Amino acid sequence: MTLRDLLNKISDEKPNSFSEAKLISFVNEVEAEVAEELHIEDVPVYEDNHVDLDKTLLVHAPYDRLYISYVKAMIDYTNEEYESYANNQAQHVQDYRDFVDWVVRTGQVARNNAVTRFRNILY
User: Fold this and answer.
1) Model-level pTM?
2) pLDDT digits (tens, 9 = 90+) for 61-75
């Protein structure tokens, strides 16, 4: 999914008065979290311009729904709609957990940039 596709889905599912730049800042937050999970050192940062709108996000379908749930949650949080925020945040946590489970199952980690977190002392 491209950034433009994501912004279009957000405007369809959760109409709001936020600027495109503000919505992109929310996307940058979750993209940084995804990059850390995948051990990617060069975190993509998107700008509010025509070039970045056509860039592909790090997470592909079907796990790309984590972007939608996160942005919807942040819209609600910023608007102080806390009940809706809680629902969307819970959905984001589940979407993100599904993504992380897929990463673990398939080993989708940038191995050349991976940080060594554990040391096997038996071998």
Assistant:
1) 0.84
2) 999 999 999 999 999
